[in-house]
Amino acid sequence: MIIIASENGRVGIVEAMHVLRCGGSALDAVETGIRLVEDNAEDETVGVGGLPNLLGVVQLDASIMDGRTRACGAVGAVRDYAHPITIARRVMEELPHVFLVGEGAERFAAEIGAERRQLLTEKAAETWRKRMLEAMSVAELERLGEDPHLRRWVGVTMDPRLAGGTVNFIAQDAEGNIACGVSTSGWAWKYPGRLGDSPVIGAGNYADNRYGAAACTGLGEMTIRAGTARSVVLYMQMGMDVEEACCQAMKDLQELRPGGGIDIIALDRHGRPAAVSNEKVGGTYVVMTDEMDTYEERPRTLVPPLVGKG
Ligand code: GLY
Protein backbone atom coordinates (compact mmCIF):
# COMPACT_ATOMS: atom_id res chain seq x y z
CA MET A 1 0.00 0.00 0.00
CA ILE A 2 1.25 3.46 -0.82
CA ILE A 3 0.04 7.05 -0.80
CA ILE A 4 1.71 9.98 -2.52
CA ALA A 5 0.71 13.64 -2.37
CA SER A 6 1.81 17.12 -3.32
CA GLU A 7 3.94 18.62 -0.54
CA ASN A 8 0.96 20.36 1.13
CA GLY A 9 -0.56 16.87 1.56
CA ARG A 10 1.72 16.41 4.60
CA VAL A 11 -1.11 17.35 6.93
CA GLY A 12 -3.29 14.49 5.67
CA ILE A 13 -1.06 11.65 4.50
CA VAL A 14 -0.50 9.88 7.84
CA GLU A 15 -4.24 9.76 8.58
CA ALA A 16 -4.90 8.63 5.00
CA MET A 17 -2.46 5.71 5.51
CA HIS A 18 -4.25 4.87 8.76
CA VAL A 19 -7.43 4.49 6.70
CA LEU A 20 -5.69 2.03 4.37
CA ARG A 21 -4.21 0.11 7.29
CA CYS A 22 -7.69 -0.25 8.77
CA GLY A 23 -8.92 -1.83 5.55
CA GLY A 24 -10.25 1.30 3.85
CA SER A 25 -10.16 1.67 0.09
CA ALA A 26 -7.89 3.88 -1.99
CA LEU A 27 -10.89 6.19 -2.50
CA ASP A 28 -11.42 6.43 1.27
CA ALA A 29 -7.76 7.26 1.81
CA VAL A 30 -7.69 9.95 -0.87
CA GLU A 31 -10.85 11.56 0.46
CA THR A 32 -9.59 11.48 4.07
CA GLY A 33 -6.21 12.99 3.19
CA ILE A 34 -7.69 15.76 1.10
CA ARG A 35 -10.34 16.65 3.68
CA LEU A 36 -7.54 17.37 6.17
CA VAL A 37 -5.85 19.71 3.70
CA GLU A 38 -9.21 21.39 3.00
CA ASP A 39 -9.48 21.98 6.77
CA ASN A 40 -6.01 23.54 6.98
CA ALA A 41 -6.64 27.30 7.11
CA GLU A 42 -2.89 27.93 6.72
CA ASP A 43 -3.04 26.59 3.16
CA GLU A 44 -4.00 29.50 0.91
CA THR A 45 -4.66 27.27 -2.10
CA VAL A 46 -7.19 24.72 -0.84
CA GLY A 47 -10.45 24.78 1.15
CA VAL A 48 -10.93 27.11 4.10
CA GLY A 49 -8.31 29.87 4.00
CA GLY A 50 -8.06 29.60 0.21
CA LEU A 51 -7.58 32.92 -1.57
CA PRO A 52 -10.76 34.27 -3.16
CA ASN A 53 -11.75 35.36 -6.66
CA LEU A 54 -11.69 38.96 -7.92
CA LEU A 55 -14.85 39.76 -5.99
CA GLY A 56 -13.48 38.39 -2.71
CA VAL A 57 -15.52 35.16 -2.86
CA VAL A 58 -13.85 31.76 -2.31
CA GLN A 59 -14.89 29.27 -5.00
CA LEU A 60 -13.63 25.69 -4.66
CA ASP A 61 -13.04 22.95 -7.26
CA ALA A 62 -12.33 19.24 -6.72
CA SER A 63 -12.40 15.86 -8.42
CA ILE A 64 -11.92 12.21 -7.54
CA MET A 65 -11.38 9.19 -9.77
CA ASP A 66 -11.61 5.45 -9.12
CA GLY A 67 -8.96 3.63 -11.14
CA ARG A 68 -10.83 0.34 -10.77
CA THR A 69 -13.83 1.43 -12.81
CA ARG A 70 -12.71 4.81 -14.20
CA ALA A 71 -15.77 6.27 -12.44
CA CYS A 72 -15.22 9.88 -11.46
CA GLY A 73 -16.92 12.89 -9.93
CA ALA A 74 -16.12 16.58 -9.96
CA VAL A 75 -17.43 19.90 -8.70
CA GLY A 76 -16.49 23.43 -9.65
CA ALA A 77 -16.99 26.98 -8.31
CA VAL A 78 -18.57 25.74 -5.06
CA ARG A 79 -19.09 28.36 -2.32
CA ASP A 80 -19.67 27.92 1.40
CA TYR A 81 -18.94 24.18 1.71
CA ALA A 82 -15.95 22.82 3.61
CA HIS A 83 -15.21 19.67 1.61
CA PRO A 84 -15.59 19.78 -2.16
CA ILE A 85 -13.73 16.46 -2.41
CA THR A 86 -16.56 14.75 -0.53
CA ILE A 87 -19.18 16.42 -2.71
CA ALA A 88 -17.25 15.25 -5.81
CA ARG A 89 -17.20 11.69 -4.47
CA ARG A 90 -20.95 11.77 -3.84
CA VAL A 91 -21.54 13.07 -7.39
CA MET A 92 -19.59 10.03 -8.60
CA GLU A 93 -21.52 7.63 -6.37
CA GLU A 94 -25.05 9.04 -6.46
CA LEU A 95 -25.60 10.66 -9.83
CA PRO A 96 -25.36 9.44 -13.42
CA HIS A 97 -23.23 12.57 -13.99
CA VAL A 98 -19.55 13.39 -13.61
CA PHE A 99 -19.42 17.17 -13.17
CA LEU A 100 -21.56 19.73 -11.32
CA VAL A 101 -20.75 23.43 -11.05
CA GLY A 102 -21.93 26.55 -9.22
CA GLU A 103 -25.50 26.64 -7.96
CA GLY A 104 -26.22 23.07 -9.04
CA ALA A 105 -23.22 21.75 -7.13
CA GLU A 106 -24.24 23.76 -4.06
CA ARG A 107 -27.81 22.50 -4.31
CA PHE A 108 -26.52 18.91 -4.45
CA ALA A 109 -24.20 19.62 -1.49
CA ALA A 110 -27.20 20.81 0.53
CA GLU A 111 -29.20 17.72 -0.47
CA ILE A 112 -26.52 15.34 0.81
CA GLY A 113 -26.06 17.34 4.03
CA ALA A 114 -22.48 18.40 3.22
CA GLU A 115 -20.80 20.51 5.87
CA ARG A 116 -21.21 24.26 5.35
CA ARG A 117 -18.27 26.53 6.23
CA GLN A 118 -17.35 30.20 6.04
CA LEU A 119 -14.39 29.76 3.68
CA LEU A 120 -13.00 33.31 3.58
CA THR A 121 -10.71 33.80 6.55
CA GLU A 122 -9.79 37.24 7.88
CA LYS A 123 -6.24 36.69 6.68
CA ALA A 124 -7.32 35.79 3.14
CA ALA A 125 -9.74 38.73 3.02
CA GLU A 126 -6.97 41.08 4.10
CA THR A 127 -4.56 39.66 1.47
CA TRP A 128 -7.25 40.12 -1.21
CA ARG A 129 -8.05 43.69 -0.18
CA LYS A 130 -4.38 44.66 -0.06
CA ARG A 131 -3.76 43.22 -3.54
CA MET A 132 -6.85 44.91 -5.00
CA LEU A 133 -5.81 48.29 -3.58
CA GLU A 134 -2.39 47.94 -5.20
CA ALA A 135 -4.24 47.81 -8.54
CA MET A 136 -7.29 50.07 -8.06
CA SER A 137 -8.71 52.89 -5.98
CA VAL A 138 -10.94 52.43 -2.93
CA ALA A 139 -13.87 53.71 -5.01
CA GLU A 140 -13.16 51.19 -7.77
CA LEU A 141 -12.94 48.39 -5.21
CA GLU A 142 -16.25 49.39 -3.64
CA ARG A 143 -17.94 49.25 -7.07
CA LEU A 144 -16.15 46.12 -8.28
CA GLY A 145 -19.26 43.94 -8.01
CA GLU A 146 -21.06 46.14 -10.54
CA ASP A 147 -18.07 46.83 -12.80
CA PRO A 148 -19.22 46.08 -16.40
CA HIS A 149 -15.57 45.53 -17.37
CA LEU A 150 -14.50 43.24 -14.52
CA ARG A 151 -12.37 41.27 -16.97
CA ARG A 152 -9.84 44.11 -17.18
CA TRP A 153 -8.74 43.46 -13.59
CA VAL A 154 -7.77 39.82 -14.15
CA GLY A 155 -4.48 40.67 -15.88
CA VAL A 156 -3.78 43.67 -13.66
CA THR A 157 -4.10 41.85 -10.35
CA MET A 158 -2.67 38.49 -11.47
CA ASP A 159 0.27 37.09 -9.52
CA PRO A 160 1.68 33.98 -11.26
CA ARG A 161 2.95 32.69 -7.91
CA LEU A 162 -0.65 32.50 -6.71
CA ALA A 163 -2.15 31.07 -9.88
CA GLY A 164 -2.11 27.35 -9.28
CA GLY A 165 -1.66 25.97 -5.78
CA THR A 166 -3.70 22.80 -5.22
CA VAL A 167 -3.50 19.48 -3.40
CA ASN A 168 -3.03 16.08 -5.11
CA PHE A 169 -3.42 12.66 -3.49
CA ILE A 170 -2.93 9.25 -5.12
CA ALA A 171 -3.42 6.02 -3.12
CA GLN A 172 -3.08 2.30 -3.84
CA ASP A 173 -4.88 0.04 -1.39
CA ALA A 174 -4.32 -3.57 -0.25
CA GLU A 175 -6.29 -4.87 -3.23
CA GLY A 176 -4.12 -2.93 -5.66
CA ASN A 177 -6.84 -0.43 -6.50
CA ILE A 178 -5.71 3.08 -7.29
CA ALA A 179 -7.61 6.33 -6.66
CA CYS A 180 -6.66 9.91 -7.35
CA GLY A 181 -8.07 13.17 -5.92
CA VAL A 182 -7.46 16.87 -6.41
CA SER A 183 -8.82 19.93 -4.57
CA THR A 184 -8.18 23.64 -4.93
CA SER A 185 -9.37 27.19 -4.40
CA GLY A 186 -7.80 27.88 -7.79
CA TRP A 187 -6.12 30.94 -9.19
CA ALA A 188 -6.17 33.75 -6.62
CA TRP A 189 -8.21 36.74 -7.93
CA LYS A 190 -9.62 34.66 -10.79
CA TYR A 191 -12.60 35.86 -12.80
CA PRO A 192 -15.71 34.53 -11.00
CA GLY A 193 -16.66 31.10 -12.31
CA ARG A 194 -13.18 30.31 -13.63
CA LEU A 195 -12.33 26.61 -13.40
CA GLY A 196 -8.80 25.29 -13.52
CA ASP A 197 -7.65 21.74 -14.19
CA SER A 198 -8.37 20.30 -10.74
CA PRO A 199 -11.97 19.31 -11.47
CA VAL A 200 -11.30 18.51 -15.14
CA ILE A 201 -10.82 14.76 -15.49
CA GLY A 202 -7.93 14.09 -17.84
CA ALA A 203 -6.32 17.48 -17.21
CA GLY A 204 -5.62 17.65 -13.46
CA ASN A 205 -6.60 14.11 -12.45
CA TYR A 206 -6.66 10.66 -14.02
CA ALA A 207 -6.55 7.10 -12.63
CA ASP A 208 -6.64 3.70 -14.30
CA ASN A 209 -5.76 0.57 -12.30
CA ARG A 210 -4.32 -1.06 -15.40
CA TYR A 211 -1.51 1.51 -15.76
CA GLY A 212 -1.45 4.04 -12.90
CA ALA A 213 -2.58 7.54 -12.01
CA ALA A 214 -1.42 11.14 -12.27
CA ALA A 215 -2.42 14.51 -10.84
CA CYS A 216 -1.28 18.08 -11.36
CA THR A 217 -0.82 21.32 -9.49
CA GLY A 218 0.06 24.65 -11.05
CA LEU A 219 -1.47 26.72 -13.80
CA GLY A 220 -4.53 24.73 -14.84
CA GLU A 221 -4.90 26.69 -18.07
CA MET A 222 -1.82 24.77 -19.26
CA THR A 223 -2.74 21.21 -18.33
CA ILE A 224 -6.28 21.58 -19.66
CA ARG A 225 -4.76 22.42 -23.05
CA ALA A 226 -2.49 19.37 -22.99
CA GLY A 227 -4.71 16.82 -21.19
CA THR A 228 -1.73 16.27 -18.91
CA ALA A 229 -2.92 13.73 -16.31
CA ARG A 230 -4.45 11.50 -18.98
CA SER A 231 -1.28 11.87 -21.06
CA VAL A 232 0.91 10.60 -18.23
CA VAL A 233 -1.27 7.50 -17.85
CA LEU A 234 -1.36 6.98 -21.62
CA TYR A 235 2.43 7.24 -21.82
CA MET A 236 2.61 4.49 -19.18
CA GLN A 237 0.14 2.44 -21.25
CA MET A 238 2.50 2.91 -24.21
CA GLY A 239 5.33 1.39 -22.20
CA MET A 240 7.16 4.28 -20.55
CA ASP A 241 8.09 3.99 -16.91
CA VAL A 242 6.38 6.39 -14.52
CA GLU A 243 9.25 8.91 -14.45
CA GLU A 244 9.61 8.94 -18.25
CA ALA A 245 5.84 9.37 -18.62
CA CYS A 246 5.85 12.43 -16.34
CA CYS A 247 8.83 13.95 -18.18
CA GLN A 248 7.20 13.36 -21.58
CA ALA A 249 3.96 15.02 -20.42
CA MET A 250 6.02 17.94 -19.14
CA LYS A 251 7.75 18.20 -22.53
CA ASP A 252 4.31 18.45 -24.19
CA LEU A 253 3.63 21.45 -21.95
CA GLN A 254 6.92 23.10 -22.94
CA GLU A 255 5.46 23.77 -26.39
CA LEU A 256 2.66 25.94 -25.00
CA ARG A 257 2.84 29.73 -24.95
CA PRO A 258 2.28 31.51 -22.65
CA GLY A 259 3.66 28.95 -20.23
CA GLY A 260 3.41 28.63 -16.47
CA GLY A 261 4.44 26.60 -13.47
CA ILE A 262 3.29 22.96 -13.41
CA ASP A 263 3.97 20.08 -11.01
CA ILE A 264 2.90 16.48 -11.62
CA ILE A 265 2.81 13.48 -9.29
CA ALA A 266 2.20 9.96 -10.61
CA LEU A 267 2.06 6.36 -9.46
CA ASP A 268 2.29 3.26 -11.65
CA ARG A 269 0.29 0.08 -11.15
CA HIS A 270 3.22 -1.53 -9.30
CA GLY A 271 3.15 1.26 -6.72
CA ARG A 272 6.20 3.10 -8.05
CA PRO A 273 5.97 6.89 -7.61
CA ALA A 274 7.42 9.83 -9.54
CA ALA A 275 7.05 13.60 -9.41
CA VAL A 276 8.26 16.38 -11.69
CA SER A 277 8.21 20.16 -11.74
CA ASN A 278 8.97 22.59 -14.54
CA GLU A 279 10.17 25.46 -12.35
CA LYS A 280 10.38 24.62 -8.66
CA VAL A 281 14.06 24.15 -7.91
CA GLY A 282 14.05 22.09 -4.73
CA GLY A 283 10.38 21.16 -5.13
CA THR A 284 9.23 18.11 -3.19
CA TYR A 285 6.33 15.70 -2.79
CA VAL A 286 5.42 13.29 0.00
CA VAL A 287 5.35 9.51 -0.02
CA MET A 288 4.20 7.00 2.60
CA THR A 289 3.97 3.21 2.38
CA ASP A 290 2.35 0.90 4.91
CA GLU A 291 5.83 -0.08 6.09
CA MET A 292 6.73 3.49 7.09
CA ASP A 293 5.98 5.17 10.45
CA THR A 294 5.56 8.51 8.79
CA TYR A 295 5.87 10.13 5.38
CA GLU A 296 9.06 10.87 3.51
CA GLU A 297 9.58 14.09 1.60
CA ARG A 298 11.25 13.38 -1.76
CA PRO A 299 12.63 15.70 -4.44
CA ARG A 300 10.79 16.30 -7.70
CA THR A 301 12.69 15.91 -10.95
CA LEU A 302 13.12 19.28 -12.60
CA VAL A 303 12.09 19.43 -16.28
CA PRO A 304 12.76 23.09 -17.06
CA PRO A 305 10.98 24.96 -19.87
CA LEU A 306 12.68 25.17 -23.25
CA VAL A 307 14.74 28.33 -23.54
CA GLY A 308 14.44 30.71 -26.49
CA LYS A 309 11.25 29.27 -27.97
CA GLY A 310 7.91 31.00 -28.52
N1 GLY B 1 -4.22 23.76 -10.65
C1 GLY B 1 -5.22 24.51 -10.05
C2 GLY B 1 -5.86 25.50 -10.89
O1 GLY B 1 -5.37 25.84 -11.95
O2 GLY B 1 -6.89 26.01 -10.49
Largest sheet: 8 strands, mixed
User: For this structure, what is the CATH homologous superfamily?
Assistant: (Glycosyl)asparaginase
Overall pLDDT level: 95
- Please indicate the percent range of residues in DSSP E strands (runs of 2 or more): 15-25%
SSE pattern: EHHEEHEHHHHEEEEHHHEEEEE
Q: Give the names of the bound compounds.
A: glycine
Count of the domains: 1
Helix content: 25-40%
Strand order of the largest sheet: 4-3-2-6-5-1-11-12
Q: How many E-type strands?
A: 13
Kindly provide the radius of gyration, computed on alpha-carbon positions and rounded to a whole number of angstroms: 18 Å
Looking at how many chains there are and whether they match, the oligomeric state comes to single chain
CATH class, please?
Alpha Beta
Q: Could you say which overall geometry the principal axes of the C-alpha atoms support?
A: globular
Terminus-to-terminus distance: 43 Å
Structure, described:
The chain is 33% helix and 23% strand. With 310 residues, it is of the alpha+beta class. It has a single domain, classed as Glutamine Phosphoribosylpyrophosphate, subunit 1, domain 1 (4-Layer Sandwich). The strands form 2 sheets. An 8-stranded mixed sheet has the order 4-3-2-6-5-1-11-12. The longest helix has 14 residues, at 122-135. The structure holds glycine. Glycine binds at residues 164, 166, 184, 186-187, 196-198, 204, 217-220.
